[in-house]
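Run log, item B.
One chain of 346 residues. Sequence copied directly from the ordering sheet:
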Amino acid sequence: MSDEPDVDAPSPRGAATLDEVARLAGVSRATASRAINGGSRVSERARVAVDDAVRRLGYTPNLAARSLVTRRTGSVALVVPEPDERVFSDPFFARTLHVVTRVLSERDLQVVLLIAGPGEQEERMLRYLRNRHSDGAIVVSHHRRDSFADQLVSLGLPASFIGRPWRHDDEVSWVDTDNVAGGREAARLLQERGCRRIATIAGPADMTAGVDRLEGWRQAMADAGHADDAVARGDFTIEGGEAACKQLLAEHPDVDGIAVASDLMALGALRVLSAAGRRVPDDVAVTGYDDLGVAERSDPPLTTLSNPISEMAAEAARLLLAQLEGGSAAPRRVVFAPTLVRRASA
């Protein structure tokens, strides 16, 4: 008789069972249980087979029995599908972690930070969520390739997103800033300043923030009858802003205004412009997006759109709490308006 906990009994009528997972994976019931529970006495081949069977059958462990196995309760996962060097160097993530931790700690919930790039790390993170090691999840900085929205909807795991998700935006709760409006505001400011050749350094095309801010910029350029071909893309990092600005100067040497989709990328642009002997704002006016501290310390101080990340993070935590405490809170979306902060760069 197996000494493994009966993690799938009782199961809802029609739901996949642990025995079915084991049979499909071609392993014993005890091995399947250890693989699902994160046990160490499982070969990599068996773990992969069990993970595949879990996905194909849509298996979900019984939560009451599962808690006896894992001893993990009272925690929420903050999911950041980014490389760790990015997470620990970008003030956006530091602010998010601080606020989410503060709000959830008031309800005696522990935050577990899950960081992973694509590939094996992402699969390990998804396995953690599938195995219900956390009561819920808050996802931030997701990309088009990520399957977190798909997985969380499939699992029925309480969740909220910071940033509009690519898929299932009507099935999950999320908060965001009005990135389209922010992109328009940045372009209009440069137009009002008298800039005649306005470019943009857009964010990644696989993130909704990058797409929406570029769309707002294009709308404002079209409204003013200005060309919208001076576009370079970055990755929301200083280095990405540097590379994009070099591209813009090479392709459009007459540029006299640049709307940049993040403050970190704007810092990179300021470095390139200074090295090229282009004075800011006399020769080229520059705007950023975020206002998380670095903008006011740049040289010159950066005109930017304030992204209310503290309010967004707090609201995302509250949306998750509503699901955890109410059990069946309907999905909600909350959109904050960005605020223009005028400084010397424009």
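Observations after the first pass:
- DSSP finds 14 helices and twelve strands in the chain.
- Residues 189 and 346 are 8 Å apart (CA to CA).
Flagged for discussion on Thursday.
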